[in-house]
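[job 4471] stage=fold_predict status=RUNNING
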Amino acid sequence: MSLVFLIAGLLIVRWAMKLVRLGLGKLVKNSAIAGTIANVVHVLLLSFVLIIAAAEAGIEILPVFRLVMAVLLVVVGLLILFRPYIPTLPFKVGQTIKAAGLLGKVEGTTFLNTRIRTFDGKVFFVPNTNILNDTVINYHYTPTRRMKIDIPIRYDQDLMKAKQLLETVMIEDPRVKKTPRPAVWVLDVTKGCILLGGRCWADNLKCWATRVDLIEKAKLKFDSEGIEISYPHFGVHHFDETPENLHGEKSAFAGA
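[job 4471] inference complete, writing structure tokens
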């Protein structure tokens, strides 16, 4: 019966800790504090299970209780003291990250590896040592992100009108944040076009969908207002290759 109580208690503790971590994730914004509280609760529940199993086995409860409390105090003290020095993964399950050359959503973590599902449906098990030794981009660490809407237009187009149209497209989208205010700058004029750069902010979860929609709206808006978008091009010069011209070109090169 003691063994049955022990096994059943461990299973109950495992199920209860899932609920505890889920509740702490919603109530406590600081992940470090939430992790510390979860660890303390976990140790308390395990201690309670061990005391019950020991009592069922006929062992005196008072010495066991004192021993468990002593171990508990030592464990809690070590957790609080060394928590800042223990390396932790800079993300949580469900967040989108870029690490170890992979871009995807974190599906789960263990002591040894992290499970990442990329957006093409592949699942990678990445050793945590590789992640801790690499640069990690956490796209959900902040609530908002800035988007880049870069559109090239031809040199002969109305520059001020094009800037106003692009700014209007961003302002009219309800997903775009009002502050910081969307803005448009001229980024470059040396690559065969005038490169307009629109910058605005949106929620992390809506960032990608908002950006692609803004690009589409800007293209349609420019078309309807007569602003022509530039495209990569190069010039080809044709020379008349008659014998007389070829002879003249050879003489010119020889003189040079």
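[job 4471] summary: DSSP finds seven helices and eight strands in the chain.
[job 4471] exit 0
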